[in-house]
Amino acid sequence: VVLMDPSEDPDDILRANRSRENTFVFDVVFDHRATQEEVYVSTTKSLIGGVISGYNATIFAYGPTGAGKTYTMLGTDCEPGIYIRTLDDLFKAPEATTEEMDYRVSMSYLEIYNKVIRDLLNPSSGFLDLREDPRGSLQIAGIMEVSTTNAQEIMQLLMKGNKQHTQEPTAANRTSSRSRAVLQVTVTQKSRRKAIGKEARIGKLFMVDLAGSERAAQNQGKRMKEGAHINRSLLALGNCINALSEKGGSRAQFVNFRDSKLTRLLKDSLGGNSRTVMIAHISPASTSFEESRMTLIYAYRAKNIKTQV
After folding, report:
1. What local confidence, expressed as pLDDT, does residue 250 receive?
2. Among the four 118, 251, 272, 280, which has the fewest Cβ within 10 Å?
3. Model confidence, pTM
4. pLDDT at residue 113, rounded to an integer
5. Is 6 annotated as a binding residue?
6. Is 267 annotated for ligand binding?
């Protein structure tokens, strides 16, 4: 990706050697002609086999407000996004091997808004707590888990959940998602043979539609306060990514996952046995040059994370 500064004057001799043109290298880059199917196949499809055999995976949608994160993740009825395509494939894959194995696919859909967790499938349950169970894995107390194999039903649930999603008109986008939406899919696999029936493999797949990052100057009042919470949790995520991507520095980096609810929830997906994909969205508009630049730097840094299995 080559990013050029729109305000740069090609005839300005004084700045000729100080061009703000930036180049970034990613695994794959899509332009405006890419279809939902193309994006899905190149980013997420390859992770599904891993989730079924018990590894964790995470997909992030990151970028400034209005660059298309929710479209990529949720999509529309006729152009479904990554959520639906992934779940579709997750339901199809076990059918091939159900002779000896029992599969259960369950999902929960939540949002983190102003530092509190809400269940999008059951909004009446109020704010939920993040607790650690004796095995050290994080659980959200009282969250509704839905187990279904019907993709149509899932789409309706997600659309219903998305209507509960905290959206507010901001100066940058009329239906801006002001919260981080996390779709968590758990695949449990048990053997049908009695002798080894006690062993279960559990793979977790997190799909995260991050709230839009934007300049504080774009919003006033309540929106600005909200933006501060959003930016703080994105900063916490950024700090974790920085610490994880430091290539064997002089001292072992401490990764502070407890800085925000988002990073605490995603602790297993950023480090450990997880494969993580970040889909960074940028806008071609010259007015969002700064946002695009920051997004690309952030994603480029995330690319350097090497996890220790």
Report:
1. 42
2. 251
3. 0.80
4. 78
5. no
6. no
